Amino acid sequence: MTTDKLNANPVVYDVGTKSSRREARPEDEDELAADPFDSEEIFDLIRNINDPEHPLTLEQLNVTQLNLISVNNDRNHVLVRFTPTIPHCSMATLIGLCIRVRLLRSLPDRFKVDIQVSEGSHQSEQAVNKQLNDKERVAAALENNHLLEVVNQCLATAVEKA
User: Fold this and answer.
1) Which residues have a Cβ under 8 Å from the Cβ of 25 and sit 6 or more positions away?
2) CA atoms of 12 and 16, how far apart (whole Å)
3) Domains of the chain
């Protein structure tokens, strides 16, 4: 976590106290029923990831939003778009990496996960998207012990709050 913040006073959004927006359904109790993933479930996995710069969650900063997540169970594909708090956010790649790692650790291997910066929300959108969706770059980043420690700190908060 850094002390020199690019966005020292981010807008904090009221997310309420509800731990999950998803309401239980009768089919959720049936162990034999197919249980497809949906955008709400993906959002619940990533909403409480802590921002690397602030003691706030990605949901509180409006970085992650339910309407920016799409799931296609037939194609085993998840797409998560996120919106950095400022157009020149130097933490965008780290935030995307945290989202990717959380989903890789939580979803079945059959899913292809794409992480993208919301269109027009970052000055280096294409470069960030390329880094976040390149398996070799992601693997190399996760071999860096310091970077992995930062990612795990962001995710540890998510586990504690979930």
Assistant:
1) none
2) 12
3) 36-161 (3.30.300.130)
Residue 154, both tokens: 């962001």
Cross-strand bridge partners of residue 71: 78
* Cα 133 from Cα 114, distance rounded (Å): 6
Do the Cβ atoms of 75 and 64 come closer than 8 Å?
Answer: no
CB-based contact 64:58 (threshold 8 Å): yes
Helical segments of 57-144, H only: 92-106, 125-132, 135-142
- The 10s digit of each residue's pLDDT in 34-49 is 678 999 999 999 999 9
Strand pairing class (77-82; 112-117): parallel
Dihedral over alpha carbons 39, 41, 47, 52 (to 10 degrees) = -90
Q: Rounded to two decimals, what is the model's pTM? A: 0.81
- Residue 127: what residue type? A
**What's the angle, vertex CA 40, arms to CA 31 and CA 72, rounded to 5?**
80
Place of tokens 């790649």: 93
Place of tokens 């969706």: 133
Residue length of the chain:
162
